[in-house]
């Protein structure tokens, strides 16, 4: 179980920490220093490097979460309400990421490649909002994970 918890926590830290850095640090700096062509190009390349890590986190979180849920806690009926909340929030985050991956992210790439900066800005705005939602869900999930059993 210690391996599952360790991998689970590391995957969550990478995903949620990456979103926090992108939202709270990189976004305001890039927005204040870069013009749209450079800013959109930067973000597209940042996502190219970050999203494979998110894919790995999704796989690890799902595998280790289900491993602990069914192998350690005895399934949904035996687990606490906080575990149910973590599972629902995690699945919602994964669904939002899948939407980003398959919809606005490829459109952002096409807009950057064709230098269609207004279209790229629209896609980046959609990605930004969805990552903001995922960041809130991720921070709430971390809070539930570490404090939920005490509620």
List the SSEs and their pairings.
Elements lengths: L1 H32 L2 H36 L9 H22 L1 H10 L3 H31 L4
Helix pairs in contact: 1-2, 1-5, 2-3, 2-4, 2-5, 3-5, 4-5
Detailed description of the structure:
With 151 residues, this protein is mainly alpha-helical. It has one domain (2-150). Helix content is 87%, strand content 0%. It has five helices and no strands. Helix 1 (2-33) runs antiparallel to helix 5, helix 2 packs antiparallel against helix 3 (81-102) and helix 2 (36-71) packs antiparallel against helix 4. It is elongated and about 55 Å long. The mean pLDDT is 96. Pfam families: CopD. The chain crosses the membrane at residues 7-30, 50-73, 85-106, 126-147. InterPro entries: Cu-R_CopD_dom. Residues 45-145 form the Copper resistance protein D domain. Keywords: Membrane, Transmembrane, Transmembrane helix.
- Which series of helices and strands comes N to C? HHHHH
Strand-pairing-aware structural class: mainly alpha
Runs in which pLDDT lies below 50 for 5 or more consecutive residues are none
Task: Return Rg in Å.
Answer: 17 Å
Query: What is the first-to-last residue Cα distance?
Result: 23 Å
Query: How many strands appear in the DSSP assignment?
Result: 0
Strand content: under 5%
Give the biggest sheet.
none
Helix content: over 70%
Based on Cα principal axes, name the global outline.
elongated
Average predicted confidence as pLDDT:
96
Domain count: the total is: 1
Oligomeric state of the chains? single chain
What is the count of DSSP helices, taking H or I runs of 4+ residues? 5
């Amino acid at each position: 179980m210690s391996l599952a918890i360790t991998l689970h926590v590391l995957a969550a830290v990478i995903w949620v920490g990456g979103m926090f850095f992108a939202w709270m640090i990189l976004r305001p700096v890039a927005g204040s220093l870069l013009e749209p062509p450079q800013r959109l190009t930067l973000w597209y390349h940042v996502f190219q490097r970050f999203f494979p890590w998110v894919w790995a986190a999704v796989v690890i979180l799902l595998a280790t979460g289900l491993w602990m849920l069914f192998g350690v806690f005895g399934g949904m009926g035996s687990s606490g309400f906080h575990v149910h909340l973590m599972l629902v929030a995690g699945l919602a985050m994964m669904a939002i990421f899948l939407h980003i991956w398959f919809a606005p992210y490829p459109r952002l790439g096409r807009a950057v490649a064709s230098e269609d900066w207004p279209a790229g800005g629209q896609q980046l705005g959609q990605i930004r909002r969805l990552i903001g939602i995922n960041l809130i869900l991720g921070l709430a999930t971390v809070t539930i994970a570490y404090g939920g059993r005490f509620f």
